[in-house]
Amino acid sequence: MGNEQDISAHYLHGDLLKAVEAALAELGKEPAQLTMDDLALVDEFHIGGRAATKHLFNQLPLKPQHLCLMLAVG
Predict the structure, then answer these.
(1) Where exactly are the structural domains of the chain?
(2) pTM exceeding 0.90
(3) From CA 73, how far away is CA 58, in angstroms rounded?
């Protein structure tokens, strides 16, 4: 299998949403009360994870009016 096919097979293994919901339920997490930390393990698929996202975010030319974005990233 080629690299592209390997990647597709990894993410198309079944119903990803149901798998994430089941895992969160197993942890006792309520969908309406999820935090960014609750979702970090399934949200940060790219190499580098949350640290890479924060590094990229910190390089953006943000202004005080963008405070809601800064609070969201942490």
Answers:
(1) 1-34, 44-74
(2) no
(3) 10
